[in-house]
Amino acid sequence: MDYDANMWRDQVVDFVKEVVMSDDMDLSVAIAGTSLGGLTAMNASSDDRIKEHVKACILVNATGKFCPSKPIAETQGSNPILKAVAALVQKMLIGFFLKYAKQSKNSEHILKQVYSIDSSNVDAELVESIQRPAQHSMAAEVFQRMVSQHGQRPQAYLDDILEDVECPVLLAWGDRDPWIKTAVADEIERLHAKFHGKSHGEEAGKTRMKRVSINAGHCPHDEAPEAVNAAIFDFIEEVISSQKNHAIEYVH
Question: pTM of the full predicted structure?
Answer without folding.
Answer: 0.78
